[in-house]
Amino acid sequence: MIDPVSDLRSVREATDRLLTAAAGLDNAAVAGPSRLPGWTRGHVLAHISRNADALVNVLEGRPMYVTGEARDADIERDAPRPLPEQLDDLRASAERFQEAGRASGDWERTVELRNGVTDRAARVPFRRLVEVELHHVDLGAGYELEDLPKEFTERETEFLAERWSGRSDVPPTTVLAAGGEWRTGGSEGTPVTVSGSPADVLGWLSGRRDGSALECAGGPLPVLPPL
Predict the structure, then answer these.
(1) Closest C-alpha to 143, from 15, 6, 2, 21
(2) What is the mean pLDDT of residues 189-199?
(3) Strands 192-195 and 173-177, how do they pair?
(4) Which of 224, 203, 225 minimizes the C-alpha distance to 214?
(5) Residue 208 DSSP code
(6) pLDDT value at residue 222
(7) How many CB atoms lie within 10 A of CB 62?
(8) Secretion signal: which residues (predicted)?
(9) Distance CA 135, CA 32 (A)
(10) Cα–Cα distances in Å, from 150 out to 24, 26, 135, 147?
(11) Per the confidence metrics, is the pTM higher than 0.85?
């Protein structure tokens, strides 16, 4: 059950955790590598800020980004900034998103995201929560997949299982974690069952872990498409 008002509160709490962690860095750490290939921690922080503004655009009926190239250029522009500027931007952009969420009218309306993807407006706060929580992990600053709230991990696992559902390049797959069960993949091929800890399952589905800690029955661990 999607509750956008509750999700907005969760976004604020997750952002506060992110800001506390980022404030413990220094300029050298911000310029250092993150866990995302080719990106510094500054790139990750800049992306989180610009994503907030992009989702404000979505909620207010504008294109999420002017172009993909403009999105990338904005991140490259903002990545080298010193830590105080990064923190100020994170706070200000987060508040702009909260304001847009509070002003949002019909949560059942359809909105457009990147590359022609559409969704209900009610799902936008959770999409923002995913950006904040997973990219906090990507900073490599002491916040791990195991630290994510239980409810978030379950919801994001379900979200990603839905994303890969119906894919002809993914075999029919049952995913098991901590008593939860999800189905993903297409209808062709040998069915497999993947099981493991909630963090390891989410890490595999989100491309943040290689799945080596998981158990796979019925065949090899499926190779998932990039997000």
Answers:
(1) 21
(2) 96
(3) parallel
(4) 203
(5) S
(6) 95
(7) 12
(8) none
(9) 15
(10) 25, 30, 17, 9
(11) yes
Helices (H) and strands (E) in the chain, counts: 8, 6
Q: What Å distances lie between residue 170 and 166, 184, 190, 214, CA to CA?
A: 8, 8, 10, 17
Placement of tokens 């503004």 in the chain: 53
Taking the C-alpha atoms of residue 59 and residue 75, their distance in angstroms, rounded to an integer, is 21
Q: CB under 8 Å to 194, separation ≥6 — which residues?
A: 173, 174, 175, 176, 201, 204, 211, 214, 215, 216, 221, 222
Mean per-residue pLDDT over the chain, rounded: 96
Banded pLDDT at 7 (limits 50, 70, 90): very high
Closest CA to 97 of 29, 18, 208: 18
CA dist., res. 145 & res. 160, Å (int): 15
Question: Where is 161: in which H helix or E strand?
Answer: helix 150-164
Residue pLDDT, tens place only, 157-178: 999 999 999 999 999 999 999 9
| Cα–Cα distance for residue pair 46/79, rounded to 1 Å | 5
115-134: burial string, b at 16+ Cβ within 10 Å, e else: eeeeeebbbbbbbbbbbbbb
Give residue 105's pLDDT. 84
Is there a contact between 141 and 21 (Cβ–Cβ < 8 Å)?
yes
